[in-house]
Amino acid sequence: MGSHALATPVAVVGMACTNFGELWDRNVDDLLVEATHGALGSAGGLGVDDVDAFWLGSMISGVSGLTLTRPLNISHKPVTRVENMCATGSEAFRNACYAVSSGAYDVVMAVGGEKLKDAGYSGLEMPSVPNDGTPPVLSAPAMYSMIVPAYARRYGVPEEQIKEAMTHIAWKNHGNGARNPRAQFRKEVPKETIAAAPTLAGRLSVFDCSGVADGAAAAVIVRAEDALKYTDKPLYVHALALDAGSGTGRNDSDYDYSDLAEAAASARTAYAQAGITDPATEISLAEVHDCFTPTELVLMEELGFSERGKAWRDVLDGRYDRDGALPVNIDGGLKSFGHPIGASGLRMIFEMWLQFRGEAGERQVADPRFGLVQNQGGSPGDLVSAVTIVSDRRP
Amino acid sequence: MVGIESYAVYLPVPRLDRADVARVVGGRGKGTRPVASYDEDATTMGVAAARAALHGAGAGVDSLWFATTRPAYLEKSNAATVAAASGLAAEVAAYDVSGALRGGAGALRAGLAAGAAVVVASDVRYGLPGSADEAEGADAAAALLVGPDPVAELVGTASLTSEFLDRWRIPGDVRTRTWEERFGVEEYVPLVERIVDDVLGRCELKREQVDHVVISTPHARARAAARRGFEAAQLAAIDAAALGYAGAADLAVGLALALDAAAPGDLVLAVSATDGADAFVFRVTEKHVTGGRSGLAAAPAGQPVSYGDFLNWRGLLPREPARRPDIKPPVPPAARRTASWKFGFVAARCGSCGYRNLPPRQVCLRCSATEGFEPVSMVDVPGRIATFTDDWLSESVQLPARVVAVDFDGGGRFECEMTDVVGRELAIGDRVSPTFRLASVAGNGVRNYVWKVRPHLEEED
Predict the structure, then answer these.
(1) Dihedral angle sign, alpha carbons of residues B333, B337, B340, B341
(2) β-sheet bridge partners, residue A375
(3) Is the CB of A251 less than 8 angstroms away from the CB of B413?
(4) Are strands A53-57 and A107-114 parallel, antiparallel or unpaired?
(5) For this structure, is A168 an active site residue?
(6) How far is Cα B391 from Cα A140, in angstroms, rounded to an integer?
(7) Is the ipTM above a cut-off of 0.85?
(8) Residue B401 — very low, low, confident or very high, per pLDDT cuts 50/70/90?
(9) Which of B70, B95, B68, B63 is nearest to B81 (CA)?
(10) Rounded CA gap, A144 and A142, in Å?
(11) pLDDT tens-digit profile of B232-278?
């Protein structure tokens, strides 16, 4: 028993990501076609027929692999639709990687896309099974806002300090997004504006919440040994981890809402696979699931970047800023991109693709060693978390 | 010997200031009246009263009679919901006495005739803005446990039925219409005189022998006239409460107030005058010395509600809803499968590790044991706030929804809305108690009843 690095390593040899935003003039087909064709084009001009199998990540924009085959006119290929809440994009990627590593296929594609803005709501509607009406009905911001008083109490940190760190995170990610042409929101927002916004849930204002957007992203994956056939700058996969909690935290008085244990567990597994012993220094940049600013704050601890109870200090010290020791969400994060569910995990990997190829423009990090992508679904106490570690060095 | 073994009154916490009403609709207003909160209806208030009256002593009950003029549902029984949420067994027959104000007296008669019953009367009193029902009403519930070992034994009853039109409401209407006030006075006052003479005659009693008198009628002028037949001291117990007219619950609430003030040996005369008249005479027994009281003295203090919020709660000032998906109703098969959890708040205590699973599960969330679960009622288990938040995006009628994670004394965690805390600060560690309320009403009219928590009263310890 155990979780291991892939026996046959794999690499990403082509990627694409659409602009994210309120794309009133595009449907999910349009987005999937753009991402898929773009990824194939960047993999040395592969055609759809050159791909042996597809994994499509989508939570609410379509069912079955046919959601992908219809718009692309793909015939007689294995196409799998996967869903793991907001970690769906990472899940499509992870399963596609396994398929190549296993030897079952030579060239596969992971694609994630979501069309949220046709629903007509300002938030996200989770699909729910008809029930007895007793499960608590909280908005997503409300569920994540529970972190703030719990964290404050656990570490004896005043809520004002936490709010200051949350404001810093929102300010940082908006600033990063302002430098990314694909982001939904491309404007710096002053800290005063962020801090003064009215609350939506607990201490969270609209600036503490990720947006809702449409978008898609795709990756072409092959065995690492074949990677240079397709591109001279492949992105190698060093770790793939997924942790699904028991989902009982919200009914367990041992859970105190101040942590995201599934994120820590998925990170531990990933670090073991990649041979990373000191993530705080070995990881050069991270894309993490900043669905809400307290999430990013706590993730700094769960991923081993900050000491327990100290992330707020590191955040305020600028450690995770664009020019800090460990830039986090340098592409702008969910905060600037919005969160088309199936696409987000792949959008995070796309930033790694750009960074490790030296194509990130004014966001470029110098000489990155390892890049970490953390993508999660659910809420505190009721979570799935995926961690992917990549670099430009072959494992 | 049959009579009232125990009794309880439930008053909702919100208080509407009549001066606030007057500022909006004109006129003058003094004092406050209790109003059902945004998540209460006749059914939930009835449950609160029934739970308090039964306090675990429902074993001998074989019928439940539920009276209201504002039934939450028609055709579907509300009495069944009250019975389920009050923890009564399936063998208890539960009947709705809905619609007419007189149902309050009818339910009491039926319960007394049945002999081992719980009589629940609950009403929400309002009308169009500026109406007398809005200003002078009281939202309240009362429950009377009837049985053979009473604190107040029934001495006699009398009833008269009279067909005339004094007030009426079309099903579904907000407004109750009334005929000319003087017409009602001339019909009701002789009815009260006659029913008092009838019942006292049957009991071989004189007016002056009665210690406490309850006169319940929706007709304010008739009530004032009828009162003149009694001494102030006989009416003092009811007058002290100054509640306002509680509709179908008014008679039972009045009876409870009178019993609260009564001593063993006292005689209580309760008269209801609606579409006729009903009168009941009770003699308070020695058991009353040790019996519980209505609970009103220990009830939580009222909390002000703005007239705007009140009108919104009653659906009279609809507000622009948040741009969110439609409310999803609970589905009947799921609610049926989990009825003891949903309505009875019965958790499952793991036989292996002892942890209380809320809701009950097949596999213990702590130790993964798969058998040996024991049902355990959480209704009377207080807890503490583990953490909390205010949700402005909630589907709750009153924003922000106050959402709390609760750790129950002795184990068990559940997240729910906290109620009766409009405008109040919350803190981790605050004490809370379960209360049966409405989560939402869906577009198909299905009312989602759930257990929430409210501030815990130290008197409950």
Answers:
(1) negative
(2) A386
(3) yes
(4) parallel
(5) no
(6) 9
(7) yes
(8) very high
(9) B95
(10) 5
(11) 999 998 898 889 999 999 999 999 999 999 999 999 999 999 999 99
| Residue B427, amino acid | A
Q: Note whether B365 contacts A250, CB cutoff 8 Å.
A: no
Span A152-201, pLDDT tens digits: 999 999 999 999 999 999 999 999 999 999 999 999 999 999 999 999 99
SS3 content of chain A, % helix, strand, coil (to 5): 40, 20, 40
CA separation for the pair B58, B88 (Å, rounded)? 6
Task: Summarize pLDDT for B265-302 with one digit per residue, the tens.
Answer: 999 999 999 999 999 999 999 999 877 789 998 888 99
- Residues in chain B with CB shorter than 8 Å from the CB of A137 are 394-395, 439-440
In this complex, do B365 and A200 lie within 8 Å of one another by their Cβ atoms? no
For residue A110, what are its two tokens?
């992971």
Structure tokens at B189: 């006052």
A306 pairs with which residues across the strands? none
Distance CA(B284)–CA(B300), nearest Å, equals: 27
Coil, helix or strand for B399?
coil
Token duo for residue A315? 């955040």
How far B345 CA lies from chain A's nearest CA (Å)?
10
Residue percentage of chain A with pLDDT more than 90: 96
The string of DSSP letters for B197-243 reads HHHHHHHT--GGG-SEEEEE-S-HHHHHHHHTTS-HHHHHHHHHH--
Which residue of chain B comes nearest to A149, CA vs CA?
B387
The pLDDT score that the predictor gives to residue B459 is 64
Considering only the beta carbons, identify the residue of B386, B392, B439 that sits closest to A201.
Answer: B392
**Subunit contact B403:A142, Cβ cutoff 8 A:** yes
How long a stretch of residues is chain B?
Answer: 461
**Does the CA dihedral B298-B301-B302-B303 come out positive or negative?**
negative
- Active-site residue (options: A17, A86, A209, A291): A86
Model confidence at B460, pLDDT cuts 50, 70, 90, reads low
Tell me, yes or no, if A86 is annotated catalytic: yes
A contact test, residue of B328, B367, B387 with most A CBs within 10 A: B387
CA-nearest of B162, B238, B227, B161 to B193 is: B227
